[in-house]
Amino acid sequence: DQQVKQNSPSLSVQEGRISILNCDYTNSMFDYFLWYKKYPAEGPTFLISISSIKDKNEDGRFTVFLNKSAKHLSLHIVPSQPGDSAVYFCAASASEAGSYQLTFGKGTKLSVIP
Amino acid sequence: KAGVTQTPRYLIKTRGQQVTLSCSPISGHRSVSWYQQTPGQGLQFLFEYFSETQRNKGNFPGRFSGRQFSNSRSEMNVSTLELGDSALYLCASSLGTGSYGYTFGSGTRLTVV
Would an 8 Å CB–CB cutoff place A41 in contact with chain B? Predict the structure, then answer.
């Protein structure tokens, strides 16, 4: 049972345009969400996160939106750059006492075309 | 500051053998988590250690075990290796208290033949 789903395995976007990566979750206990970026042969790198008490968090070119009622979050990258080409993972956590386990989606491979 | 260091980077083992992977966290980080990444299943949580105690465990068989030392370094062990254990094993460290600021290492690529 996949609790975090990234339904698009891949996405291609022109340089300078907006990239929108989507993520859905099923576990109502999740209250903290993160996005990671991963290049081949490297570990995931933290990008941005959002707590369930917010619906938007922004950091430079990256914005994460959370729709709790729909159990949906999205990552917007504006403008997209060729260096953004990587696999993006959505992750979620339930902050019950002592639980810092992250549940990941299977990733979306973003290709930014120059 | 130095990042999360995982050794070795690559490993080839035979079915039935056992393997030990090592992870050195960022200085000051007391939590170490382990994840398995495979093409079909994505990143799956194995276990998390904080101050030498296992706090969380994922849904993996008992062949997968780990430990954490007093200096926060961690090791994971897989016994009686199966072909399906071939994967990238990632370690992540964090402060561990109220923080989700996980930093991942580059991983150990394990191939079981």
Answer: yes
Return the half-sphere exposure (C-beta side, CA atoms, 13 A cut-off) of residue A6: 28
**Location of structure tokens 């790198």:** A45
Three-class SS of chain A: CCCEECCCCEEEEECCCCEEEEEEECCCCCCEEEEEEECCCCCCEEEEEEECCCCEEEECCEEEEEECCCCEEEEEECCCCHHHCEEEEEEEECCCCCCCCCEECCCEEEEEEC
pLDDT tens sequence across B39-66 = 878 899 999 999 999 988 999 999 999 9
What pLDDT score does A99 carry?
A: 64
Judged by CB atoms closer than 8 Å, whether chains meet at A104 and B56 is answered as no
Compute the distance between CA of residue A71 and CA of residue A59 in angstroms, rounded to an integer: 22
Q: Which residue of B has its CA nearest to A37?
A: B104
Q: Which residues pair with A52 in a beta bridge?
A: none
Q: How far apart are the first and last CA of chain A?
A: 38
